[in-house]
């Protein structure tokens, strides 16, 4: 079986290589694609140097294509990849809201992936991190309302986002004014409540993605969700403060126990021991940290909690590879016969 | 009339001097006090060098004492200051919850200050910033529930908090691990959902202060408030994402107009022009920036908004001076006859 990565040289591409090295996914060959500018460069995979090729115009001779080169490229090229016989696991938002494209977090709705018609969408990173904590609570207690405030890292904008934070912070520490190119305003020591484009309703697209995608993954269109998405000067891992109004009352201890036996989650909730979710501890970790689990003071029987998840991993690369693993484990990924 | 500052050499003390320079408060003399360690140092006020004295054991011969040297010093010494005839405007949390101590934000409940018995409390900085936006909405629409997530600057822990952020960020940029002394964990490029001590209910004292103090200032004990207080790597200005459930439905435009005519608030809400509240623009500003005003997606007729306020100013020094101005304007501050 042959796996291809499109967008291999970006921040998520880098993580895809690293996650694939440790993955249980069985495949014979890995192809790497990126923009023509990166063609000819090499990346190391399991000790071997692999050469990056320019993404071709038409089909790619692979069984699984992990696409992470942005929405425009996915939109333009995925139909040809599917026509060529590949299953496309797409990290962009290009197809997430199409009715016949499953939007999948394997721990939550893996079975949806089996109903694909060639394309499977990977959710927005903020959604993927939140839904790991919220889905088990929804199954057990029925979430009616969900209020989310995010603390999003600069790597949400890729490697260039992290570079801008580091370079501009260096400028500020040397007494110079910070400038901005990637972000809407200078990011060092600042907070920017603006991620992705503003919609007519005053919410950003990033905020609406959390609402739209959480409902689709959980499979409950009645769920009410309000989000404030905020960029802060961190490098990686998105944190989120979440307040939940529930159908059936929960206690913090019951939620702690529920999440402790839920896949993809690490309960990190010992305030006395100064243990709670933080980018410092969640970065590089596959599991999403969940803590600060406490009774809501605004909803009877509701729950407040705080999550931190490495959005380059669970929010992107890891989730994509886990979708491929899920397909293979369920016999839904068979390599083509090649000469 | 004589004004004294206790804690003159700290981050808030520094702002008190600057705010007093521009204040309409009429007084003849300014006395500066701090710990014995700082005694003998000088600070500039209106071009004059003033010598800092060690805070005495007993009374201080001043008409107004602006106290900002921490809860322990206020608790221990304020009774003697009051006995000596001074009005104490206290920036610590020592007296905020005493039934006979008014907790005052002049734009919201200035008249409460006139009922003091010697001590007037200045609210917690996070509360002061939020309440300027929320109180006018409460008066017009009746707030039932308020959900707050904070993005708090390191200067909430004083000058030493800012120093730790700058020094440790420098370490990280030079490839070294950050350490921590002021904060519970290293703060550079990190997020710490832990400010002040944890309470039995799983909330921190900082989070409960927002609930307790907002209710006291607004004068409505039925208001339900849930807060998540989070330290982030910024220098000054606290930002807050706030979701409001209202008795009577509001529209974003009506709230924008209401806040535009409210004191202490600058409506900064033009997403198309990339105008919204941010530490970068709110730092050093007396008004609290309010923006991202939009319909709540979880409460019918409710409102989501975002605020950013320089917590060293409105959250501390500015509010304290404004309380003194309010007392003087209402004839409630008369200088003693001195020989």
UniProtKB/TrEMBL annotation, chains A, B:
GO molecular function, one term: protein dimerization activity
Residues that coordinate or bind phosphate: 96
Active site: 125 (acyl-thioester intermediate), 238 (proton acceptor)
Chemical reaction(s) catalysed: L-aspartate 4-semialdehyde + phosphate + NADP(+) = 4-phospho-L-aspartate + NADPH + H(+)
Segments forming domain Semialdehyde dehydrogenase NAD-binding: 2-116
Record: residues binding NADP(+): 9-12, 37-38, 155-156, 311
SMART domains per record: Semialdhyde_dh
One GO BP: lysine biosynthetic process via diaminopimelate
UniProt cross-references to InterPro entries, sorted A to Z: Asp_semialdehyde_DH (IPR012080), Asp_semialdehyde_DH_beta (IPR005986), NAD(P)-bd_dom_sf (IPR036291), Semialdehyde_DH_NAD-bd (IPR000534), Semialdhyde_DH_dimer_dom (IPR012280)
Pathway(s) annotated for this protein in UniProt: Amino-acid biosynthesis; L-lysine biosynthesis via DAP pathway; (S)-tetrahydrodipicolinate from L-aspartate: step 2/4; Amino-acid biosynthesis; L-threonine biosynthesis; L-threonine from L-aspartate: step 2/5; Amino-acid biosynthesis; L-methionine biosynthesis via de novo pathway; L-homoserine from L-aspartate: step 2/3
Enzyme class, UniProt record, top EC level: oxidoreductase
Protein keywords: Amino-acid biosynthesis, Diaminopimelate biosynthesis, Lysine biosynthesis, Methionine biosynthesis, NADP, Oxidoreductase, Threonine biosynthesis
Enzyme Commission number, as recorded: 1.2.1.11
List of residues binding substrate: 152, 231
Top-level lineage group: Bacteria
Binding partners and assembly: Homodimer.
Chain's role: Catalyzes the NADPH-dependent formation of L-aspartate-semialdehyde (L-ASA) by the reductive dephosphorylation of L-aspartyl-4-phosphate.
Family named by the database record: Belongs to the aspartate-semialdehyde dehydrogenase family.
Protein name stated in the entry: Aspartate-semialdehyde dehydrogenase
């Amino acid at each position: 079986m042959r796996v291809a990565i499109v967008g291999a040289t970006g921040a998520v591409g880098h993580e895809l290589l690293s996650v694939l090295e440790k993955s249980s996914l069985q495949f014979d060959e890995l192809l790497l694609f990126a923009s023509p500018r990166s063609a000819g460069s090499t990346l190391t995979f399991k000790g071997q140097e692999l050469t990056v090729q320019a993404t071709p115009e038409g089909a790619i001779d692979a069984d699984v294509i992990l696409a992470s080169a942005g929405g425009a490229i996915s939109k333009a090229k995925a139909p040809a990849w599917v026509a060529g016989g590949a299953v496309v696991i797409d990290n962009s938002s290009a197809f997430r809201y199409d009715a016949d494209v499953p939007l999948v977090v394997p721990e939550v709705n893996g079975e949806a992936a089996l109903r694909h018609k060639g394309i499977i969408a990977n959710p927005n990173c903020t959604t993927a991190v939140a839904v790991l904590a919220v889905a088990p609570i929804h199954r057990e207690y029925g979430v009616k309302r969900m209020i989310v405030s995010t603390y999003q890292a600069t790597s949400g904008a890729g490697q260039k986002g992290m570079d801008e934070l580091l370079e501009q912070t260096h400028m500020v520490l040397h007494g110079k004014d910070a400038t901005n190119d990637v972000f809407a305003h200078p990011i060092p020591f600042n907070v920017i409540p603006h991620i992705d484009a503003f919609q007519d309703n005053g919410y950003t697209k990033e905020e609406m993605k959390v609402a739209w995608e959480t409902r689709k993954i959980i499979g409950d269109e009645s769920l009410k969700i309000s989000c404030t998405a905020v960029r802060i000067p961190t490098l990686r891992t998105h944190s989120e403060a979440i307040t939940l109004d529930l159908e059936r009352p929960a206690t913090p201890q019951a939620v702690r126990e529920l999440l402790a036996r839920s896949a993809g989650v690490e309960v990190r909730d010992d305030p006395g021991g100064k243990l709670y979710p933080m980018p410092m501890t969640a970065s590089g970790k596959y599991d999403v940290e969940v803590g600060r689990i406490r009774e809501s003071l605004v909803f009877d029987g509701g729950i407040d909690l705080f999550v931190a998840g490495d959005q380059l991993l669970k929010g992107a690369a890891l989730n994509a590879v886990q979708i491929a693993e899920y397909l293979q484990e369920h016999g839904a990924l068979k390599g083509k016969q090649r000469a």
